[in-house]
């Protein structure tokens, strides 16, 4: 496990989102995953995405892995809302304090609008999608027989699930190409670095939702229909 972290420090955040703490010693990935009740294939699949490896649909993941995947995604959302976005706002404010250009205010409006939009999307997943997945798991694995309280199907999730990478790209574009330089070199660089890190992480996050979770939810829905 430690070797993976030395090769790619982004995996440290991934560990936190799996609720795995540092201090892994010389334990293997499998040993750590067994201790946390995580399918090793899930962990390695996510790690491969962070390494830039394309996801293959024949990976040995199953609907039984959905609770761990949802817990992971919830922790990702908490990381964005509680840590990443406040840090970006802090860097932006320092940039605004150091700049005398009115154009800098456009960046503030752009970032504020982006955070509002992505927060709405996160709330939709936390309050609608993930409870629905939890309900599905209860019907399939715990023999619960309750009505769907959310009245959601994965087809609706697909329609609501939009890409937010374009707005991040536009914001980086403004900061790098179009906003004239002022006395804001350090906070601007910190803001740009934070945006690139966020973009990197969000890309993996979207792949997990689109390529892994949604297909598994579809399988779960079909399994529940067959069971009824």
Description:
The chain is an all-alpha fold. The protein folds into 2 domains: 2-50, no CATH class; 63-227, no CATH class. It contains 9 helices and no strands. The chain has helices spanning 2-7, 10-17, 29-36, 40-50, 66-98, 104-141, 154-160, 165-178, 185-227. The longest helix is centred in the last third of the chain and has 43 residues, at 185-227.
Give a summary of the structure in a few sentences.
With 228 residues, the protein is mostly helical.
The multimeric state of the shown protein is: single chain
Q: Note the beta-strand portion.
A: under 5%
General shape: globular
Q: Averaging pLDDT over every residue, what do you get?
A: 87
Please state the structural category.
mainly alpha
The largest sheet is: none
Portion in helices: over 70%
Low-confidence stretches: none
The ordered string of helix (H) and strand (E) elements is HHHHHHHHH
Q: In the residues, how many domains can be counted?
A: 2
Q: From the alpha-carbon coordinates, what is the Rg to the nearest angstrom?
A: 20 Å
